[in-house]
Fold this protein.
Amino acid sequence: MSDNLEQKIIEKIKHESLAPTPRWHFLLKEWLVWLVGVLSLLVGAAAVSVMIYLSKNNDLFIYDQVGRSFSGWLLLSLPYFWIVFLTLFVWILFYNIKHTKRGYRYPLFLIALFSVFASVLLGGAFSLFGLGEKIDDVLGRQAPFYDIIFNPHVDIWSRPEEGRLSGLVISNSSENTFVLVDREREEWQVAYSGKEGSGGNNAVIVGQPVRAIGKVTGEGLFSAQKIMAMQPGREFFRRLKPEGAPPLNFGPGKDAPACLADRGKLLDWLRQYPELKQALEQGLLDNQDLIREISADNPDFLPMLQSLNVSPETIQIIFSR
Amino acid sequence: MDNALKTKDLEDAELVRLSLADPDKFSLVIGRYQEKLSRYVRRLGASSPEDAEDILQDIFLKIYLNLNDFNPDLKFSSWVYRIAHNQVISHFRKRQVRPEAHSLPIDSPGFQLLADDISLDKQSDINLRQAAITEALNKLDARYREILILKFFEDKSYQEISDILKKPAGTVASLLNRAKKSLKNSLPAKMAEL
């Protein structure tokens, strides 16, 4: 059998012109496995960064103020979509590591642990660079069903009958009342009678979304005991800007463009307190989309910013996109 | 004769390089591994010489086609055994038959190694003992039988078995342990020492 088999195999190779599969074919396969693994790690980490961003703004400990138990409130506000999304990509990462050339040498639990920790650690690093916030903003601006799928908090805070109301502040005419438009595009007159330090007027900025705990007191009327800013989902709420509404202003308690009579005083303060100027510029940088939107609707807005001695670099960063 | 000696001295990796350059040189790889793989295939359950030859031919063709995939970090023999292992599994899966261990050559030193390892009663007749082990192996789950064959009949180390079966070394150790226990349980009670 020995020589016979040897001959048969060599003849078959020659007769059928068989040739070894080229090396690049195997290298490509291996690279693909690594590439998909790395992509899964990046996508999983991005999901983690969004989850961190959502949870940072979750206010878990207000459960008693909304009449829930801690566990009930926690279960209600978990970002299920992102959990499933992360699980999927951690699994793909796990699968790909297992299928690399040396992947079989490592115990499965070790690969699984690595996949989870790598995604979480990288997600934490992404979060430091504000990636979760950026992803949430992009999805908030463009993703369909954002309020149902990507950000459970929008839905949780859209139950006025249960004492939770959220929406975009569209006007803030007096000290303790403002108007917001909720996700159903209904307008609410919100009366606020809470204490300082629990949100209140500091959170009420025209053009920014807020959430309020309180109760419905009449048709389109809501009495708020606590008002908080609503960071995740802010771009989603900006979709609600009513057609033909006056340009959304920037700053609490103001319906009109910044009070011109106070400009001199403001300039003095900005000179006197460099930290204030720094905070103003940081605020502008943090809300670049809003600034561009306001500027697009108001030709005077950019000159006004310049007159406040906002540094040209900041203006360039904001308007370079 | 000189040539034959030189060929014998060549490293596996060198044989791979030569085969890639000239298909005729692949006969050197076949020559080096044919007997070992033939034994392995029969041990894994090829029931007839024709069956074994068919499987062997497929194995060598697969080795040839995948020569460029050989990773020098690995022992060439482990890589070859891995291909053989996969080919045997796929062969039996295609035919939908259960591999049989009865084709284990009875004179194999693996029987003694295995008997010593699981502390079989040394008083019993050697032929009876080997027949009992063969029968017990035949009844074993395929993955247990395979790992026992690799360890005791093919004399492979844990690392080599890990590379052949593509399992972590720790898993190989625990699988081997379970395989030995299972084999012992399948043997007649009077043969297994307490």
